[in-house]
Amino acid sequence: MNSSNRKLWTYVVFVAPALFFFTMIILVPFLRAIIYSFQDWNGISSDIAWAGWDNYATIWKDAGFHKSFAFTLKFVLVITILLNVFGFLLALVLNLSLKSRNLLRTAFFLPYVIGPVIIGFIWQFIFTNLFAEIGKATEWSMFMKNWLSLPGYAFWSLVIVTVWHSVGYFMVIYLAALQGVPKDLLEAAEIDGAGKWKRMQNVVLPLIRPAMTINLFLAISSGFKAFDLNFALTRGGPFGTTESIAYHIYLDAFTKNLFTLASAKAVVFFLVLAGITLVQVSVMKRKEVEM
Amino acid sequence: MNNGRYNIRTLGLELLMVALALIFFVPLYMTFVNGFKTYNEVVTSVAALPEVFQLENFITVWKQINFFGVFMNSIIVTAVSVIGILLISSMAAYQLVRRPGKVSNVIFMSILASLIIPFQTLMVPLVKVAKDLSIINSLHGIIMMYWGFGVPLAIFLYHGFIKGIPRELEEAAHIDGSGTFGVFFRILLPLLKPITTTIAILHSLWIWNDFLLPLITLSSDSTRTIPLAANIYFGQYTNEWHLAMAALTMAVVPIILFFLFMQRYIIQGITSGAVKG
């Protein structure tokens, strides 16, 4: 073997395994999702017919899909705001020299390492049993309702559990950013007569923009992909009011055998998510300041 | 911001935060405590401590779901998936960085672009592809799927890290007669340790807790992972809260212990992974 042949051979050996699994598990299914979206097939029978844009036309009129889309948008909006506001506030407090800061950080971060399905079951117990007991003891009407079976309440129970589960993650990222703000810069601003708010507004916030970009992106994309909690906590109910897009697609494909329709919905989902996150990241990247 | 000054306001804030942290812990506390109670105790009072801490629920659940087997499935799937991802991704990223050109560029860009595809877009055809390749409903099958799903983020993070490592070290080793494999495994791999830890932690947490992929690709009893077993058990014993809480306790204890021991690395890994991603 001559040297350039050998170089080529080494290249193939190093790159091929990763490329092979990437192709089989991501690329091929992705292309197939697009192909399926133009076909009509129930996932079982041997004949697959071409359907043109029929699936997309069906989606246009599919009230169930619209409903889950509206739910998901509202959910994304609410949790993006809450996770970032609370995550940032917790980080601000933990950035002070509290004696128990390490313990507090552990406590707020802990739920994040537990899988969301398990979290969903745990909270099902809390909402049905503990809330009832608190309701009996205090007679507060808020706790006397069954949160998981009332449409408005079920939405907020998902929000509460999501915030409880993930706020520690957002806190940790904001905390790392806050710790990266140079002390001398803050002192210089203080000497120049900038008060607390001015320092926050003109020094701290601009410097932690990169963390904001990341956290907004994470909240938006994880909110759009929400599945586990909708599955384990509310089962999409009551009356399908908490059916996220991901859960809706899952139900179509795996319980109703609407394979090709589900694929079309999955493609629409991909386009929406990719569009929104790309716009968000590119707009926010432009506003970041270089240190 | 007050740097280091501890005054009455800080103390008030600290007490408030401790109270908040305790409220935060209530759901987990309830799960643990009720796992030790009898059915009647749970029904009478959720918040009360059990009369006696009896382990009966745990023994029952352990046998019913074959907890040891389920736990081992989770361990095997997570460990083999993560090790495989680390190996194939670091190897690929190494050559993609060191042998730049059109081919490397196209490969890297396609892998990078795939990061924005949500799993839900792939899951419908994936089941079909997995059936065609007969990797459905088996542990080795799901491990190979995780290799595919894990590769993009891992290659992206390795790629960025390797770019920052000077070539001179490798060139010196080459002159000393080492082949590319030798250089990679003896020189480069040890240098990659920080980013390898980050990737290992991000992927371990994800795979250990993942639910949707096992849900659609694993259906037999013998292949269940912890989240899957919890789902099936909870579905069957919804109203027998004492057993359900024991099962959930068993499901969360391993990952909580892992977190408490590895906390520093986990938080570091998650922060640096997020910042680079």
TrEMBL record, chain A:
InterPro entries: ABC_transporter_permease, MetI-like, MetI-like_sf. The chain crosses the membrane at residues 12-35, 75-96, 108-132, 152-177, 203-224, 258-281. Keywords: Cell membrane, Membrane, Transmembrane, Transmembrane helix, Transport. It comes from the Bacteria. It is found in: Cell membrane. The keyword Transmembrane applies. Residues 69-280 form the ABC transmembrane type-1 domain. It is a multi-pass membrane protein. Pfam families: BPD_transp_1 (PF00528). Coiled coil: none annotated. The keyword Aminoacyl-tRNA synthetase does not apply. Belongs to the binding-protein-dependent transport system permease family. This is Sugar ABC transporter permease. It comes from Paenibacillus oenotherae.
